[in-house]
Amino acid sequence: MIVLEENWRQICEYYGLTDSDLTLLHKHQAFFQQHAEEVVDFFYQELGTFSHLSEIIRANSTVERLKKTQLWYFQTLGTDRIDAEYVAGRQKVGAIHARVGLSASWFLGGYTIYLRWIADKAASLPDGFAFYQSINKRLYFDSAIILEQYIGDTQRENVAYRSQMEVIAEELTQSTKEVTVIAAEYAKSATSLAHSHEEIVDSMSILKNQSKEIEKLSDFVAEVSSQTNLLGLNAAIEAARAGEHGRGFSIVANEVRKLADRAKSSSHEIQSSLGQILVQISKIEKQIENTMSSTEQQAAASEELAALVQGLNEMACRLNA
């Protein structure tokens, strides 16, 4: 007996499936019980010849589990009632096929395996031709239920996927905008840092030149100090020869020598300080060279980052398209 809502009842009429067909199939219920294991084994033997179908089975279930489901399904083909529970069972099959990703064309091919096997066996029945026609109608009606569920689930999944992709694209677009701002600031900072380094290099060059001038001046002071000390020594000798008359001049000569010694000592201190300054300048120059290299790498990385952001932006546009 067919007890269905209007839409499914009309589909039954469209396929020509009637209560008489169900009565005829139910009369041969023993046929479905007796041959269930045989037809299911034949069904999976045929499926096993196609590697991608075997991969789908291995990825989602096992042949043993699926055989139990197929046994149940084949045996229900002999029932004399099609109602909401019957439709719900077929819809569950459609949902499973949509979930595992089995295409409709390959799913329908499974029915041809059933029909080929049944055609051979039905020939031995006294009303085999009528039986075969009835089972055809029922299987086509079942396929309509399963395919409608399959298509509906696939469409809903596609809509959900599309919505998810739109959200991701929006987030990606926002992220690329933020990264673009960061990249621009990064590039600006790298450029500013490079300019600052150039100014430091110029200042260090000037300081180095000035240090050299001071060093020359220090050398000159040391030379003057040496000559002054020599003159003071000669003056002291002459004052000693003059005896009492050269005593005052001897005092002056000693002070000149003291001043020359102080100048010489100061010259040495200046030379020592200049040496330390030049050492520090050399270290700073090396640090600046290293920093300049890092700055150039930063600038290059900034350009690469900008290119990456552009690529992400294009990807987001394609997702939104």
Tag the structure with descriptive keywords.
single chain, 321 residues, mainly alpha, Globin-like, Helix Hairpins, 2 domains, 10 helices, 89% helix, rod-shaped
Characterization of the model:
- The protein is an all-alpha fold and 321 residues long.
- The chain has 2 domains: 6-166, Globin-like (Orthogonal Bundle), CATH 1.10.490.10; 190-320, Methyl-accepting chemotaxis protein (Helix Hairpins).
- It has helices at residues 6-15, 19-27, 29-34, 36-47, 51-60, 63-76, 84-100, 104-122, 128-242, 247-320.
- It is rod-shaped.
How do the helices and strands line up, and which of them pair or pack?
Blueprint: H1 6-15, H2 19-27, H3 29-34, H4 36-47, H5 51-60, H6 63-76, H7 84-100, H8 104-122, H9 128-242, H10 247-320
Helix pairs in contact: 2-9, 4-6, 4-8, 7-9, 8-9, 9-10
Short description:
This protein has 321 residues and is an all-alpha fold.
β-strand percent reads under 5%
Overall geometric form: rod-shaped
The averaged pLDDT comes out at: 76
Largest sheet: none
Radius of gyration in whole Å, from Cα?
Answer: 51 Å
Provide the CATH superfamily of the largest domain.
Globins
What would you call the structural class? mainly alpha
Number of domains: 2
Q: Helix coverage percent of residues? A: over 70%
SSE series: HHHHHHHHHH
Strand segment tally: 0
Supply the number of helical segments.
10
Give the CATH class of the largest domain.
Answer: Mainly Alpha
Low-confidence stretches: none
Distance between the terminal alpha carbons, to the nearest Å?
A: 51 Å
Q: What's the assembly state of these chains?
A: single chain
